[in-house]
Amino acid sequence: MPSIFIIPTSNGWNFVRSAAPASPPAGRASQSNGGPREAGSARTEQNGSWTVRKLQTLEEAVPLLSAGDEFVLGLPVSAVIAQRFRLPSVDPAEFPEMIRLQIEKLLPFPADEVTSDFELIEQSENESVVSAIAIRNEQLAEVASPLLNRGYIPRQVTVYAAQRASTYAPKGNALLIYPEGEMLVYAMTENGKLSLARAIERNGDQLQTELPQLRLSAELQGIDASYPNVLLDETCYELRATVEGILTSPTEIVGIELPPAPVKLNLLPESWRRRRVQLMRQVEWRKRLLWIGGAYIGILVLLFAYLGLLRFQLGRLDSRIAQDAPGTEFVRTTESKWKALAPAIDPHYYPVEILQHLFESLPSADVRITSYNQSARQISLDGEANTAALAYEFIDKVKKNPDLRTFQFDMGAPRILPNNHAQFRLEGKPK
Amino acid sequence: MMPAWYQRMNPRERVLSWIVAGTVFVLLNLWILSSLCGAVARAQREFGTRRSKLAEQAVYVRERDTWTKRDEWMRQHQPPLKDPAEASALLDQIREIAGKYNILVENPAIGTGETTPYHQTVFASIETKSPWPPLVHFLYDAQRPDAFVVFESVNLAIDGNDPTMMRGKFKIARWFASGQKGK
């Protein structure tokens, strides 16, 4: 259900907006004889609230709308032609063509310049009674031009009288009397559908003349107008006695609808519909692009924040390092000196120690060291084993010897001698 | 509202202008992202390096007492080079140890070696011939931590003429305290 309705009133237009996400069902704002509503007043109905803003012209609605708003434009009766037709068919598929033909007969301009719609009032076995509403496209464009010029296309264009009828007189016949601008609207309704409507000047004399004529016209069209339910708008309270005198029927005072009732009647031209779909798609894409852009900017901001955090932490680490540096500089220097002098002061580098541990690592007497060379920081030894496997076993033990962990030992592939012994060479470098 | 210059363009020009603007926009953003990611990666690397350095420093701070003691020990025990006769004295010392174990010393030579920020070297080189057990004793006696004696070169091999004998070539150095200031 749309959340915005723009409807004609005695002093221009009412901009009715839902203030809550959940829209309430059609309600009657007032059934009493209360005075006119104040501009900008808001009232809460059941499970939602609606804000009503009075506008002089449709131009004033523009700043209140935003792209993507779904709104219904209610047309004044003076802008449309409402006609009741009795069609010799019960097949709804045939109605549009039949109504088009009927309207062509009524109007002095081509049917393609007109937008029309209808609502079924009643149906019997052989015929159907429909309420047809038509509006000339040019006139519709003129009425809605302030909105169209700014790219706001309503989701539905309907007739306010039909909305009121659907709200107040969904069953039976009724006569609605309410003001639209300078004019007073008389709308005959059947089962909540508009069957006949007139707009006349707002004064008692005119009422005395027009009301009996309207009743007569209604009866000529087959509308039972003998005991109508008369619904008089609260702003026309002063006419109550006059109306009751003419129609000899009691009148009921009604207020504006919050929100106006939903009606099927839609006079939105096809070109507008297409343009609206296009605009909605553009709005959707704009929203998506905004989200993508927002996400992208968010990522950039996060990255910048992360970079800032890293830089901040780097600064802190640098200051801590700088703070500790004098204390550690001495240790570094001493460590370097200790390492440089290691061949002299660390027994792990002494040949006798290394030879001792190498001999401990010999797997058996079948492995022999034949030559040993050592520089201050490098070792190489040659040997011979009865089998290559023993040579590999020897290197394995050397590597695992914890007292030789100062060096990293490597052995190339042993050379197999003619007597099947394996000659190997082991090299060790400090880690 | 579109600006006038855009309104003056025909559809083809508009499409082209959008393509150019889009390309510039994409390239600009790629450059921004690339720079930003590069900066973040660099900062992460630097952060890792600094943390390692800080951890290393923490270890150094913890071990400061140990290293103070080691520094003190080195200062106390590393001998200073007093005169050029130190090489001769070293050779005499080696000969004495060799003589103690009846090791035959051949081709003795002395000299001065490299000087580093941590030591000045004098050396004695000898060749030996002996059975294996006395040689082990010789090696054992020749080195101890407070003597600052280094075997800069050791070559040991079984004597080709007598498999019960070992042939050894040694370049034995003493590392004196350096006159240069350490780094």
Features:
heterodimer; A: 431 residues; 6-stranded mixed beta sheet; 5-stranded mixed beta sheet; 29% strand; rod-shaped; B: alpha+beta; 4-stranded antiparallel beta sheet; 5 helices; elongated
Summarize the structure.
Helix content of chain A is 36%, strand content 29%. By secondary structure, chain A is an alpha+beta fold. In chain A, a hairpin with a 2-residue loop joins β1 (4-9) and β2 (12-18).
How many distinct beta strands of chain A?
19
The main sheet of chain A comes to: 6 strands, mixed
Low-confidence stretches of chain B: none
Q: What amount of the residues of chain A lies in strands?
A: 25-35%
Strand order across the largest sheet of chain A: 3-4-2-1-5-9
Low-confidence stretches of chain A: 22-47
Global structural class of chain B: alpha+beta
Radius of gyration from the alpha-carbon trace of chain B, in angstroms: 36 Å
What percentage of residues of chain A falls in helices of 4 or more residues?
25-40%
Question: How would you describe what is shown here?
Answer:
The complex is a heterodimer of chains A (431) and B (183). Mean pLDDT of chain A is 85; it is low at 22-47. Chain A has 10 helices and 19 strands. In chain A, 36% of the residues lie in helices and 29% in strands. Chain A is rod-shaped, with a radius of gyration of 49 Å. Chain B has 183 residues and is α+β, with helices and mostly antiparallel strands. Helices cover 53% and strands 25% of the residues of chain B. Chain B has helices spanning 4-8, 11-62, 64-77, 86-100, 132-142; strands at residues 104-115, 119-130, 149-158, 166-177. In chain B, a hairpin with a 3-residue loop joins β1 (104-115) and β2. The longest helix of chain B is centred in the N-terminal third of the chain and has 52 residues, at 11-62. The radius of gyration of chain B is 36 Å and the shape is elongated. At the A-B interface, α7, α8, α9 and β15 of A face α2, α3, α5 and β3 of B.
